[in-house]
Amino acid sequence: MTQQPGFSQYGDPRHGDPRYGQPPVAAPDDRTPAALAHASSLIAMALSAGWLSFVGPLVMWLIYRDRSPFVRQAAAGSFNFNLGLWLMSIVGWICIITVIGIPLGLILLAVSFLAQIIGHVIGTLRALKGRTINYPFQLKVLR
Question: Is residue 20, in this structure, part of any structural domain at all?
């Protein structure tokens, strides 16, 4: 059986890359800034009691959004994750202030705190290996 010209068993070459949707490949130089995008959240969380944890990833995204797709994706994911958890913390504090929702507020704050620490440590380690992370609780603001 003969093949038609221009076609192969891997598909029609005229219809784009079959790997569409794959995460960007990390160059060795991009791993450190991507890890810093994740780790900057932990540093800012420690320095600001959790209130400014989204600033570091936002700065990294602004710097690297046109340079490196890998760093851009890491910074955007970290920012989106932080934004969702930051809003969860605000709701927790509102519950605590209203006195009636103190138990719910404490649970929300604890979940937010632990999720940030665990998520960003895993994100930093994965970025150092050149792999991406898909955070839960993301509000897709940056892409």
Answer: no
Q: Does 3 fall in a domain? A: no
CB 112 within 8 A of CB 85: yes
The tokens describing 86, both together, are 């930051």
pTM of the model: 0.75
Which residues constitute the domain of residue 78?
28-128
Q: What is the pLDDT along the chain (143 residues), one digit of tens a residue?
A: 566 665 555 555 555 554 555 566 667 788 888 999 989 988 988 888 777 888 888 888 998 888 888 889 989 998 999 988 889 999 999 999 988 888 999 999 999 999 999 999 999 999 988 888 888 877 787 77
Counted domains in the chain: 1
- End-to-end CA, the chain: 46
Q: How far is CA 11 from CA 22, 50, 62, 94, 97, in A?
A: 17, 50, 38, 55, 60
